[in-house]
Automatic annotation (TrEMBL):
Cross-referenced InterPro entries: ArsR-like_HTH (IPR011991), HTH_ArsR_DNA-bd_dom (IPR001845), Metal_resp_trans_reg (IPR051011), WH-like_DNA-bd_sf (IPR036388), WH_DNA-bd_sf (IPR036390)
Start and end residues of each stretch annotated as Disordered: 1-24
UniProt keywords, alphabetically: DNA-binding, Transcription, Transcription regulation
Biased composition (Basic and acidic residues): 1-11
GO function terms (MF aspect): DNA binding; DNA-binding transcription factor activity
Keyword Zinc attached: no
Transmembrane segments: none
Lineage start: Bacteria, Bacillati, Actinomycetota, Actinomycetes, Pseudonocardiales
Protein's UniProt name: ArsR family transcriptional regulator
Gene3D superfamilies: Winged helix-like DNA-binding domain superfamily/Winged helix DNA-binding domain
A Pfam family of this chain: HTH_5
Entry superkingdom: Bacteria
HTH arsR-type domain span: 24-118
Amino acid sequence: MTVEVRSEHVHSPVRGGAQPVPPRPAHTLAAAGELLRALAAPVRISIVLQLREADRCVHELVEALGAAQPLISQHLRVLKAAGVVHGERHGREVVYRLVDEHLAHIVVDAVTHVEEGPRGINSGGLGTEDL
């Protein structure tokens, strides 16, 4: 006895008749991945949120975040290397600022998404130990 199994291809629901998005160049996607990796640490997210409000020097970030100065400096180096922040020397201090507001929007949207709570049946969520 032979049983014929028919598999029908099911498409995802169309959002307002949207067409497929043209593929982006591989180097663009790789750079976007590097940027997201640079933002993927709770301390770095906190730094971006602080810098969104105002330019700050290291000691202000240390005070605001309650973290050790070497840790803040290490995370600022990562953010600087990724082009997220820019530091400008003022006497003995370096004042950091966000390179542009797009980066703050990425972080704010991610934090807001998490704060809105679970979505769907597979929303186990990530703890900070997973970041």
